[in-house]
Specification:
Distance between the termini: 38 Å
Radius of gyration: 18 Å
Strand order of the largest sheet: 1-2
Shape: elongated
Order of helices and strands: EHHEH
Number of strands: 2
Helix content: 40-55%
Number of helices: 3
Length: 90
């Protein structure tokens, strides 16, 4: 077993705590993504798939409502990592 502090086997034996560097997992409901994509497609039929998804997914994540689950509440830095620096999404 590796130590959380990078000491490897035989580390300090400290219990890992939620802190800087610990991963957080975000899960998206792909059925919800598909619904939002279809709505966006209806409004902009000539837009590319990638373009629409790059608009739909960040809005879904920023909204934080149905369709988004985190293993623990996201920190501001984690949201910035996922959403980028677009202030309109925060």
């Amino acid at each position: 077993m590796s130590g959380v502090d990078g000491s490897g086997v035989g580390g300090s034996g400290a219990v890992p705590r939620v802190g800087a560097g610990e991963a957080n997992t975000m899960m998206l409901d792909l059925a919800r993504v598909l619904d939002l994509y279809r709505e966006a497609r209806a409004q902009r039929p000539d837009a590319g798939t990638e373009t629409l998804l790059r608009e739909v997914v960040p809005r879904l994540i920023a909204g934080g409502g149905p369709g988004v689950t985190w293993s623990r509440p996201p920190r501001p830095g984690e949201l910035r990592t996922v959403l980028g620096s677009s202030p309109e999404l925060r």
